[in-house]
């Protein structure tokens, strides 16, 4: 029901039907339900939220369950000329693992820097000519064999990394 202003300044109900109203008065009449603009706004908001949550969920799953297919990639580690005898270089792989490349009298070798006993970081000591794990005083010789500490009593040697020498480069499959 609409209201019109009477001549004597009283508000009385309009008894005419809505069909006889001019277009400007029709626009002022209240509507019920959802109009097209409101529907599209809600649909876009819900759709955008769904796409955002799906994208976030995909990244979260990839982080929580990384690709572990075991496919190894070839990676450049160091140049042979930059490795003097008895010296080592530590290189980080794209996956975050660290590899130590050592130039020994027997040739170039590469090992994981993770101790096989408790997972601590092993480092090369030039002055003592061996690998040392500070967590439990384990000692490994230049071939990666455990000499002292818990890994020696458990028979756990350092994990060797497969390498290939091409020209002056040292490449590994990591």
Structure description:
- The protein is α+β, with helices and mostly antiparallel strands and 174 residues long.
- The chain folds into 2 domains: 3-64; 74-173, Rieske [2Fe-2S] iron-sulphur domain (Rieske Iron-sulfur Protein).
- It is 22% helix and 30% strand.
- It has helices spanning 23-27, 36-64, 150-154; strands at residues 3-5, 11-13, 74-79, 88-92, 98-104, 107-112, 123-125, 130-133, 138-140, 146-148, 163-166, 169-173.
- The strands form 4 sheets. Strands 7-8-9-10 form a 4-stranded antiparallel β-sheet.
- Strand 11 and strand 12 form a beta hairpin.
- The longest helix is centred in the N-terminal third of the chain and has 29 residues, at 36-64.
- It is elongated, with a radius of gyration of 38 Å.
- The mean pLDDT is 80.
Query: What distance separates the N and C termini?
Result: 79 Å
Domains, number: 2
SSE string:
EEHHEEEEEEEEHEE
Quaternary state of this entry equals single chain
The helicity comes to: 10-25%
CATH topology annotation of the largest domain = Rieske Iron-sulfur Protein
Strand content: 25-35%
Class inferred from helices and paired strands: alpha+beta
